[in-house]
Amino acid sequence: MRIDKFLKVSRLIKRRTVAKDVSDQGRVWINGRDAKASTHVKVGDELSIQFGQKKVTIRVELLSESTRKEDAAQMYTLLKEEAFQSE
């Protein structure tokens, strides 16, 4: 599954176009490597996503083409959430 679609289906990012933009800006990493929107993600991969002043690291647990809102959180496990200090 493409990373932009995973971010949208898992509801980490609301819209696929926004997920694509975030990926293409170099703010998403898979297993420590830069990920573009077309990069494929597998179960067990670690994703790091930078949201403004926050960086979230998750592990992919499940891939699904579509999901209900209640089930979206089962697609990943939150490993780490870091806040950056502004200077």
TrEMBL record:
GO terms under biological process: rescue of stalled ribosome
RNA-binding S4 domain mapped to chain residues: 1-63
The keyword Zinc appears for this protein: no
GO terms for MF: ribosomal large subunit binding; rRNA binding; tRNA binding
Keyword Protein biosynthesis: yes
Subunit structure: Associates with stalled 50S ribosomal subunits. Binds to RqcH, 23S rRNA and the P-site tRNA. Does not require RqcH for association with 50S subunits.
Known function: Key component of the ribosome quality control system (RQC), a ribosome-associated complex that mediates the extraction of incompletely synthesized nascent chains from stalled ribosomes and their subsequent degradation. RqcH recruits Ala-charged tRNA, and with RqcP directs the elongation of stalled nascent chains on 50S ribosomal subunits, leading to non-templated C-terminal alanine extensions (Ala tail). The Ala tail promotes nascent chain degradation. RqcP is associated with the translocation-like movement of the peptidyl-tRNA from the A-site into the P-site.
Family note: Belongs to the RqcP family.
Entry-linked HAMAP family: RqcP
The protein, known as: RQC P-site tRNA stabilizing factor
Protein species of origin: Paenibacillus oryzisoli
Gene: rqcP
